[in-house]
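Good morning N.,

You mentioned wanting to compare the apo and holo forms, so I went ahead and generated the holo version with glutamine. This is what I fed in:
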Amino acid sequence: MTVSATGTSTTGSTTSEATLVSRTAAELAGMIASGEVSAHEVAQVHLDRIASTDQAVHAFLHVDAAGALAAADAVDAARSRGEALGPLAGVPLGLKDVFTMQGVPTTCGSRILEGWRPPYDATVTRRLRAAGVVVLGKTNMDEFAMGSSTENSAYGPTGNPWDLARIPGGSSGGSAAAVAAGQAPIALGTDTGGSIRQPAAVCGLVGVKPTYGGVSRSGLIAFSSSLDQAGPLARTVLDAALLHAVIAGHDPLDSTSIDAPVPAVVDAAVRRDVSGVHVGVVRELAGEGYQPGVEARFREAVAVLEELGAEVVEVSCPSFAYALPAYYLIAPSECSSNLARFDAMRYGLRVGDDGEAGAEEVMSLTRAAGFGPEVIRRIMIGTYALSSGYYDAYYGQAQKVRTLITRDFTAAFEGVDALVSPTTPTVAFPLGERTGDPMAMYAADLCTIPANLAGTPALSVPCGLADGLPVGLQVMAPALADERMYRLAGALEAELDARRGHPLLHEAPRLPAAPIDEEQR
Ligand code: GLN
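and this is what came out, ligand included:
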């Protein structure tokens, strides 16, 4: 898709531009390191691609063309001085608007942060810069990462590049759409209940939620602190691993950051051997509510893993059935506390400050105007669940269920190395279909939430199409064993690509490309 979409003569693109936006991050880094192409040219081609397609896709909330080109020029200069370049140096990236980036507008998809320019970089942003990764801009997301479709963004929804009338998933929908649309080879998202894996699945990408604490949350605007985790979105398992390796590792600025070596994810991604790996299929993540085409692609992919030498058994995780209700008490409870900081005094929006109104009144007017309906719903649920007299009945009970889910994982991993399931019960649904029905929207994360509650890592890898739309297979591993997911996913990806004769993304339809306005350059 990415090739044909920019390759059309109406966009005025050259063949080289058309080719560059379809390259993987690993390929681009190699081309830049060898001098075949400059980082500047790579950045410019992706900025042009955004200019020609983002009116239709709306993946970006802010494009930082000047910053991106300056970062690319710094990589080119380092290369010309003969300095060794890192494995992602010069590679463009879309950054979810939940990460702070010094001086660059950061809204978290909310009106309440409109106009805010953070005074500091998130640790993840700092590590990207240090690695020479070229941040193109900030990507669209559900407000404060609450949602599964990016329709809760205060700045309007994003379209799925496979079908612009469908959701790109959420809450990291802008990041996923950018990668699927050829606007960036890689992107970063955050996953509190599925917000990296679910968009990856419905956009035909690889998406990874690392082990909780594996990637620093410093400078990541908090939704639900005991669940939030940053991670990569990419077109290949290797690209995801390369990005994972750049952002992961201990950070003294985050007290929940794990002080342990980063799992060897890059080696695992290219190992392509799963013989003797014990894989458990989760019995409870199937059946009613699952689209037949999704179940069929999932079962076929499991059969492929078996043909490749994995030993597959069925595993029961009975408490997974209660993951969704437990999550929808814990996440709102934590967000009601985290979002108290948006008080009209410290950041962004301030409403009703006429010199007469008291601080409390300004606070209340600002919060009423600045937060959207889903955020308000969650703050109200969370405040109620945490209130005295209800705490034990709701929040306390949900934490007990969380322990049962963790025990299901522990028991399962005594018998198998990794667990698998579909990533989502259905393929991308039409925009608007679930906006009036929060329960239906929440169901999109049925399969992804257990790993967040347990703090264990999970990954989504494309496993085919159902009704012409991508299906994802989820791999779950024990905490700190992230490399196992990359090993399984890398082998499956290589085999499926070989049988198909090309990567799945090549089957995506063309995007309607608008002509590039030369003035914008
Ligand atoms: N869709 C889930 C929610 O709305 C998960 C969001 C996320 O992972 N950030 O809370």
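The longest strand covers residues 458-466.

Happy to go through it together on a call whenever suits you.

Best,
F.
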